[in-house]
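Appendix B. Raw example, untouched.
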Amino acid sequence: YYCFEHFGSRFLLIGSDTISSRITHQMIRNYINAKGGEIAGEFFLKKDQSNLQEILQKIQQTPSQVLLNSL
């Protein structure tokens, strides 16, 4: 609720590539959709991913107002 009021309704989700992050993202997606928000993008980082340049570029190119992470 706070994010909607103070930042906007377009969200970018980023998390580790684990079951817990994927379940967390599903719960967040359900909440955001129920409140009329939008998921602008969703990214998962692999456990052995060392080059973050690609993911950082995707984050910069995604038109979001709020970034939520489950790393």
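End of appendix B.
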